[in-house]
Specification:
Layout (H helix, E strand, L loop, with lengths): L2 H20 L14 E6 L4 E8 L3 E5 L10 H7 L4 E5 L16 H14 L5 E6 L1 H12 L4 E7 L7 H9 L11 H7 L3 H11 L9 H11 L4 H10 L1 H13 L7 E6 L6 H6 L6 E6 L6 H4 L1 H13 L2
Parallel strand pairs: 3-4, 3-5, 5-6, 6-7, 7-8
Antiparallel strand pairs: 1-2, 2-4
């Protein structure tokens, strides 16, 4: 069987599994409205899975590790009456394809602009979380005239200031260097255990991340090559830092930035970090939440993000 045929079968099986589980009782991960168009956009060496719905000024939502674009469903539902909402799965994550390399955030930002071009999206607001923040900065810094405003949620930027250096010394970030063929063999078949570590240790209330959510993402991260690609996102941090310092040397961002931290995670430090790279930064704090803000405090987060995106 050709690799492309095998990949298509795997993706079809994953879509069927997600459709069957998304509507289960008490499920935290809900399907996007049926009016959203789901497509797979081909780029130079990958296929990016993307959901598009609504009408009006565009908003692009970028997820991070431990999630996929599925995390943004509540935000998309809120924004779609007045916005065209674009929700991709990042390269190598979710239902996007799984190339061996290309996980530098500068390159991923360039890839996403080509996806947006194919969708006839010009300027857009940007909402990001975790590794999505890192891709988001590369987008905003390289395409300053296209990004109209940026909501950045609960993760620092590689290579920028003491906040990042402190992150590298944080015992909880041992996973930054957790990779390689033997590590992948160790994790194979145990993806749920690995993800549980992140959900339990980086949340304020682990039980807020329910069983269905955990199984949903464990299935996605167990797809062929998915864990390898997730680890490559972290492996790229050194080069991302080099690229970020080069972006900053071109000047700080001028668009409005909302820096959102969780009170049990980055809190107001998120805004301190973003002020290193942007001039117009407003801080917001999600209460009673750890890092997994959309799972722990979805209503609070949706309200904060929607108010910022809709601000005139």
């Amino acid at each position: 069987m050709k690799p492309s045929t095998w990949q298509a079968l795997v993706r079809t099986a994953a879509l069927v599994w997600l459709a069957l589980t998304a509507g289960s009782a008490g499920a935290a991960v809900q399907p996007f409205p049926p009016t959203f168009k789901v497509s797979d956009v081909k780029t130079a060496d990958a296929t990016i899975h993307v959901r598009v719905g609504g009408s009006g000024p565009a908003v692009v939502l970028l997820h991070g590790f431990g999630d996929s674009g599925d995390m943004w469903q509540p935000v998309a539902v809120r924004l779609m009456p007045n916005h065209t909402v674009v929700v991709p799965d990042l390269r190598g994550m979710g239902l996007s394809s799984h190339p061996d390399n290309g996980y530098e955030k500068k390159a991923q930002a360039q890839e996403l602009t080509r996806v947006l071009d194919s969708l006839s999206i010009g300027s857009f607001a940007l909402v990001t979380h975790d590794i999505g923040n890192m891709v988001g900065y590369a987008l905003a810094a390289q395409y300053r005239k296209r990004v109209t405003r940026w909501a950045v949620i609960d993760a620092p930027l590689p290579g920028i200031g003491e906040i990042w250096e402190a992150q590298l010394r944080n015992p909880k970030t041992w996973h930054f260097n957790f990779r390689g063929p033997d590590v992948e063999r160790l994790v194979a078949g145990r993806e749920r255990i690995l993800l549980d570590r992140f959900y339990n240790e980086l949340s304020a209330t682990p039980s807020a991340i329910d069983e269905q959510t955990r199984e949903h993402y464990a299935h996605l991260y167990a797809l062929p090559h998915a864990i390898h690609d997730a680890f490559e996102q972290f492996a790229a941090f050194t080069q991302d830092g080099v690229d970020n310092r080069a972006f900053l040397a071109q000047g700080k961002l001028a668009m409005p930035v909302l820096a959102v931290g969780a009170d049990h995670s980055y809190s107001t430090v998120e805004a301190d970090d973003l002020r290193l790279v942007a001039d117009d930064v407003t801080a917001a704090v999600i209460t009673n939440s750890g890092h997994w803000i959309m799972e722990e405090q979805p209503a609070q987060t949706v309200d904060v993000v929607a108010a910022f995106v809709d601000k005139k």
